[in-house]
Write a structure and sequence with these properties.
Blueprint (H helix, E strand, L loop, with lengths): L1 H26 L1 H4 L10 H13 L2 H11 L9 H22 L18 H25 L5 H9 L1 H24 L14 H27 L6 H28 L10 H22 L2 H4 L2 H23 L10 H24 L32 H19 L2 H5 L12 E9 L6 E4 L5 H5 L5 E7 L8 E3 L1 H8 L5 H4 L12 H4 L7 E2 L3 H7 L6 H4 L15 H4 L20 E2 L2 H19 L35
Antiparallel strand pairs: 1-2, 1-3, 3-4, 5-6
Helix pairs in contact: 1-14, 1-15, 3-5, 3-13, 4-5, 4-8, 4-9, 5-6, 5-14, 6-7, 6-8, 8-9, 9-10, 9-13, 10-11, 11-13
């Protein structure tokens, strides 16, 4: 009965995930995740990929122990370990499909090589090791087929496959650590280290041993077979040595780098570090070395689960997911649980239908009787067999997902509005750019231009930073106006003006950073034209629907609003009164003008129409602590 109850729970999780997966693939990441530009890696990378790869390390550890080091006493758990690793790596690949913005491009690393990329190396090693695991496990399936020659060939190449698997696992387990060595600015000192590749590899070996013990303990309970306690003592001692080595490396590295003081710099990071080391190393080591624990499936399970939780916490901390304010959406959790449930169901299928365990099971669950096991009531119809119960559990999970799924997931993500604020007048310094004829603007250094010895001195500029995120552009308004022909040139950029204004600023109409803004107020026009009596003034065709497209142009009445001779073409009628987003408006105006100037004056250089001519490449994307970065504009 316990096996069927577990299966029904797993099928229900899979049903919930199936609905969310369809929404994810159809509507994208924005509608189904809590990921942002600041946190582009979430649960699917931190747990599913980084944690999943480490948890699946038991395959190469046990395979090497049996085939290379000839520790034959561990052969009974070899096949389950290989199957666990195989399904674990499939789960990693499936999770990557969901995490990639364009999932159908997951094959591209096979053809488009980037040999200088750590991610490229990880991708290739994972793909190759997944293939090796498939070949290592295939004899279990081929034993039930007439392909005896293929089976014999695979058994002959087992040792080379195991050696290749160990090599590939060593490479990609450590390369995941290398990936984070390349981004020191994103990691807290407690987790950043040049030894990350070694730490990732050592922890993966310890995690693999713990995963094997968890699998053995859980399947013994599920299938009612005798616990493999005669193997636990050796595995527990090995895990204690590996985890102890990891802890010594970790603390020693912090001491050598002088980073132990970081333990007291931030209470949140300190708590996370202590919790991670306590659950991932200290508690498991203490339990594994106790003789009583080594002979107790419950004790082994407790110690192994503690180690797994600790190192999953480590992977999340390395990714920075617990310190950025990121909280995964329940839909992300549902997909993760669905992937795990699918892997667990696949394991149970192979365990029940193939010789995964080389020794026969001592006993197994029998199917539920026709009566309910709790109430004893005789059931029929849909409850007549286990397959129907599993189908019902899957359908119930899918129905639950439909009931709980947010409306924005079904309809797509609704972008939130980002109000725009106008430019500010600031001091700036104009300096020449080597090799080209335009000059760059930058913020004056502390103490001012005179203190820096800059001959150009100060000038007044506009700081254009609509959403105040630090990605500002310093704009020499007076210089542009002078070069364009004086005050008469205002119309070139200020293409529409509010009543009574000579030059309305961009932010007045383009009031949102990314979304279009409606500059037409229908209620005020109704009020000013005398209510419904004034409708015919704009909607001249009484038979046409009263829409923006059928209405008269705004300029028919408000001719003074338009700036004649502007660089901005008048809007198409159906877009009249709609101002595009601030970013689109600014880029559309500035970049087009720069391209024209570049064609007329090649000496301006190829970069004149590129982002760096206006956005200072040295400023970074975010303001630095204690002050805003300098912006730049090539003018």
């Amino acid at each position: 009965m316990r096996l069927h109850l577990v299966k029904m729970f797993l099928w229900a999780c899979l049903g919930v995930a199936a609905v969310v997966i369809v929404a994810r693939l159809l509507l994208g990441l924005g509608a189904t995740t809590a990921l942002t530009d600041a946190t582009p890696w979430g649960l699917w990378i931190g747990f599913d990929v980084l944690g999943g790869v480490a948890l699946a390390a038991g395959g190469f550890v046990i395979a090497a122990s049996v085939h290379i080091f000839h520790l034959e006493r561990y052969r009974p758990i070899l096949r389950p370990a290989i199957l666990t690793a195989f399904l674990g790596y499939i789960a990693v690949a499936v999770s990557l499909v969901f995490d990639i913005g364009v999932p159908w491009n997951i094959w591209r690393p096979m053809l488009f090589w980037q040999p200088n990329s750590a991610l490229f190396e990880v991708a290739w090693c994972v793909m190759l090791y997944l293939s090796v695991l498939a070949l290592e496990f295939s004899p279990v399936v081929l034993e039930r087929t007439p392909f005896t020659k293929v089976l014999a060939l695979l058994k002959k190449v087992t040792i080379p496959l195991v050696i290749l698997g160990v090599m590939l696992s060593t490479l990609h387990q450590s390369s995941l650590g290398t990936l984070f060595v390349l981004m020191p600015a994103r990691l807290h000192p407690l987790w950043y280290s040049p030894l990350l590749p070694i730490l990732f590899l050592v922890s993966a070996v310890g995690l693999g041993l713990c995963t094997v013990m968890i699998e053995s303990a859980v399947t013994s309970w599920l299938f009612r077979k005798k616990p493999e306690t005669h193997l636990f003592s050796g595995l527990a001692r090995a895990a204690a040595w590996v985890l102890g080595s990891y802890a010594a490396l970790r603390i020693g590295d912090l001491a050598v780098r002088g980073a132990l003081g970081s333990l007291f710099s931030d209470p949140r990071e300190s708590v996370l570090f202590v919790l991670e080391m306590g659950t991932g190393a200290v508690l498991p080591i203490a339990l594994f070395v106790l003789p009583r624990t080594q002979n107790s499936p419950a004790g082994i399970l407790l110690a192994s689960v503690s180690a797994v939780l600790g190192f999953v916490l480590n992977r999340l901390n390395v990714c920075g997911l617990l310190t950025t304010g990121y909280v995964p959406a329940w839909t992300e959790v549902a997909i993760t649980l669905g992937v795990l449930a699918g892997a667990a169901l696949a394991f149970l299928f192979f365990a029940e239908h193939f010789s995964v365990y080389e020794s026969p099971r001592a006993g197994s669950d029998s199917p539920w009787p026709e009566g309910d096991p709790v109430t004893g009531v005789r059931l029929g119809g849909i409850w007549a067999g286990p397959e129907r119960r599993h189908s019902l559990a899957f359908a119930a999970g899918a129905a639950l997902a439909f009931a709980l799924i947010p409306g924005n997931v079904l309809s797509g993500a609704s972008p939130s509005r980002t109000p725009v604020r106008g430019p500010r007048v600031v001091d700036a310094i104009s300096s020449p750019v080597e090799g080209v004829t335009f000059r760059r603007l930058s913020a004056p250094p502390p103490g001012g231009a005179a203190a820096a010895g800059l001959a150009d001195g100060r000038l007044h500029a506009l700081s254009i930073d609509g959403n105040r995120d630090g990605r500002r552009v310093l704009f020499d308004h007076a210089g542009h106006q002078k070069r364009a022909g004086g005050s008469a040139s205002c119309r070139l950029c200020h293409h529409a003006n509010e009543p009574g204004a000579l030059a309305t600023t961009c932010a007045e109409c383009h009031a949102d950073m990314y979304l279009a803004s409606d500059t037409f107020s229908h209620p005020s026009h109704v009020r000013k034209t005398g209510g419904t009596k004034g409708c015919a003034g704009c909607h001249k065709d009484p038979g046409a629907p009263k829409t923006r497209e059928s209405a008269a142009s705004c300029l028919d009445c408000h001719k003074e609003f338009a700036s004649q001779g502007s660089r901005i073409p008048p809007p198409v009628k159906r877009f009249a009164g709609m101002a595009p987003g601030y970013k689109s408006a600014m880029h559309g105006l500035c970049i087009s003008c720069h391209k024209e100037a570049q064609q007329k004056t090649p000496a301006l250089g190829a970069a004149f129409s590129q982002c760096r001519s206006c956005h200072d490449p040295k400023a970074g994307e975010r303001p630095s602590p204690g002050g805003a970065p300098s912006g730049a504009a090539g003018k």
